[in-house]
Design goal:
14 helices, 9 strands, 7-stranded mixed beta sheet, alpha/beta, globular, disordered C terminus
């Protein structure tokens, strides 16, 4: 019963007119600013640590508004894209199709990496439009198991299969089997690894531990690594950015740290182009305890007041 009610609720949200998104994002930001104390601390801490914007500055507040607004509007667009795919305009599908087709003809599986930037969920939907073989996604089960059927229902709409995290040995076996069959394996790899234990690479000029899974699998199975990101460029309008990061034979000869650094560099490149579309309200780094300790030399991009693009441009895109 609960699942049916939630399903109807999601459909109701997907049917909302796009002209309501701006007002809804303003409402969400107001609620976030008033009640999401811990989340605010994380977001402001991250942008202070990386960009040098202290929480009391107008620049930090403006950027925080853009991040929350982007997350809200991407959420509604993602629901539309999953439940009403014809309502979205997608660029880059042809390029992604050529890349995946070429990779599949090599007779080995592919590792597809993405990040929590733009709509990572729509990456799965786009893959279902271009692939000819299986597509499996590593996913964390919801805290409340009552939501599991709903997640399966949504994934069915996206035509992709799930590998649930949990039993590490079973997960490792499932991922290896996927690649051995020549299927694609999707991983969102910008979250911190368990207990922050993983290969340490440079990410936004900071030593940052990353998950080792994509690199370990690529080495073991000589699989290519492909970066795929689905980025919002306007209301209901998204662009896929996809490119081959490492050839299969090349992956087998590189270290785990070197492969992870390649992936981290690609994720950072995308975030710098679309900074407001990344989840800055995620505890990615261990931050100093006081704002004074986080003050450091500004990023060159930030010094130019761009952070990847002009602030006025960012405002226009967020507002659609």
């Amino acid at each position: 019963m609960i699942i049916h009610l939630l399903w109807f609720l999601l459909w109701g949200l997907a049917l909302l007119p796009r002209r309501s998104y701006a007002s809804l994002s303003q409402l969400v930001f107001l609620v976030w600013r008033l009640f999401a104390r811990k989340n605010k601390q994380i977001l402001y801490g991250n942008i202070s640590y990386i960009w040098g914007y202290l929480p009391t500055t107008d620049r930090a507040k403006h950027f925080a508004r853009q991040v929350i607004s982007s997350q809200t509007e991407v959420f509604f667009d993602t629901l539309r894209g999953i439940l009403r795919p014809a309502s979205l305009k997608l660029q880059g599908l042809e390029e992604l199709g050529k890349l995946i087709t070429h990779a599949e003809t090599q007779g080995r599986g592919q590792i597809l990496i993405s990040a929590h930037v733009g709509s990572w969920e729509l990456v799965g939907k786009c893959m279902s439009m271009v692939r000819t073989k299986g597509f499996f996604v590593l996913a964390k089960p919801p805290r409340h198991r009552v939501f599991l059927p709903l997640m399966h229902k949504l994934r069915k709409q996206m035509n992709c299969d799930l590998i649930w995290t949990g039993d590490r040995e079973q997960v490792s076996q499932s991922m290896a089997t996927t690649l051995q069959r020549g299927d694609s394996l999707g991983l969102v790899m910008d979250q911190k690894p368990r207990n922050r234990q993983g290969p340490e690479v440079q990410f936004f000029d900071q030593p940052t531990p990353f998950v080792a899974g994509p690199a370990v699998l690529a080495r073991q199975h000589a699989c290519p690594i492909i970066g795929i990101f689905c980025l919002r460029i306007g209301p209901g309008h998204y662009r896929l950015e996809s490119r081959l990061l490492v050839q299969g034979e090349e992956a087998a000869g590189k270290s785990v740290v070197a492969l992870t650094q390649i992936c981290a560099r690609e994720i950072e490149r995308i975030i710098r182009q679309y900074p407001e579309q990344w989840c800055w309200n995620y505890k990615r780094w261990v931050l100093p305890s006081s704002p004074a300790e986080t003050e450091k030399k500004r990023d060159p991009v930030a010094d130019q007041n761009t952070m990847g693009m002009d602030y006025d441009t960012m405002s226009r895109e967020t507002q659609g």
